[in-house]
Amino acid sequence: MALCLFALDVPAKAQDGLDTGGLTFRDFATLDNGESFSREDPISGGGPNQVSSRLVSIDSIRAAAEIRFDSIKIGLALPLGWTATEDWERGVSHSADRRYRAIVWRVDFAFEGVKDAEHYAATKSGAIRARRPGIRAQTRKLGDGSYLVMYENVPAGQGDGGPRIVFDVVVSKPGNPKEGILLTLGAPATEPDRALSLLALIKHSMRIDW
Predict the structure, then answer these.
(1) 106 CB contacts (<8 Å, ≥6 apart)?
(2) Is 75 within 8 Å of 91 (Cβ atoms)?
(3) Which end of the chain has less neighbouring CB within 10 Å, N or C?
(4) Is the pLDDT of residue 163 over 70?
(5) The whole model's pTM is what?
(6) Could you give the CA distance from residue 132 to residue 173 in angstroms, rounded to a whole number?
(7) Helix (H) or strand (E) holding 186
(8) HSE value, Cβ hemisphere, 13 Å, CA-based, for 162
(9) Dist CA 193 CA 138 (whole Å)
(10) Is residue 138 scored above 70 in pLDDT?
(11) Is the Cα dihedral 150, 152, 154, 159 positive or negative?
(12) pLDDT, averaged across the chain
């Protein structure tokens, strides 16, 4: 089923061609008025110096919260009921049941030994498939010039209930192809369409201070 997500005739509802599929943040939210973002999360996927990220605002109608990852100067919207933490290099967020996880990094492509976002996406997907030959990867260029990579057959990690599907979006800094942003979303392998819709919602909300 996931393979059809990369078909050329999939209708696009956004400038980048990444479609929400008619879903909204409310389809992924727990209506707690943003309380989850003020709770400590001792088992978050962040580093040893992680802190709670800043809650900027709550939109009860959309069932979304605007979160600011100050350490990497990136803001985005997340469904209510999620948590968000950060360390010096990345922001980490996940749903209350931990089935959905999103991570955002800044990437120095030159430091990573690649020339640009396209090269980074190809190099990363190639390295992952070399380490785990059972993983399948597909890449497509979005209308805004960013790159979407879909990984299928990703083995379950600690605490996961089964195989995963993972999406990467690699975005270049305007005017400087040597720097960029990596947004990763992991979800149960049985929910590729819902995961792609959520990825679209998060990406379209992302505000980056370059």
Answers:
(1) 72, 74, 89, 179, 180, 181, 182
(2) no
(3) N
(4) yes
(5) 0.89
(6) 30
(7) strand 176-188
(8) 5
(9) 15
(10) yes
(11) positive
(12) 90
Residue 88 burial (C-beta neighbours within 10 Å; 0-12, 13-18, 19+)? exposed
What's the CATH architecture for 18-208?
3-Layer(aba) Sandwich (3.40)
Q: List helix spans (H) across the chain.
A: 117-131, 192-205
By the 8 A CB rule, do 164 and 156 touch? yes
Q: What is the 3-state composition of the chain as percent helix, strand, coil, each rounded to the nearest 5?
A: 20, 35, 45
Question: How much of the chain exceeds pLDDT 90, in percent?
Answer: 82
Report the b/e string of 107-143 with b at 16+ CB within 10 A.
bebeeeebebbbbbbbebbeebeeeeeebebebeebe
Report d(CA 106, CA 208) in Å as an integer: 10
Radius of gyration of the chain (CA): 16
b/e sequence 9-48, b meaning 16+ C-beta within 10 Å: eeeeeeebbbbbbebbbeebbeebebebbeeebeebbbee
Main-chain dihedrals φ then ψ at residue 178, nearest 5 degrees: -85, -10
The DSSP H or E segment spanning 59 is: strand 54-59
Nearest to 141 by CA among 108, 170, 167: 170
Q: Characterize the bridge pairing of strands 147-154 and 83-86.
A: unpaired
| pLDDT category of residue 47 using cuts at 50, 70 and 90 | low
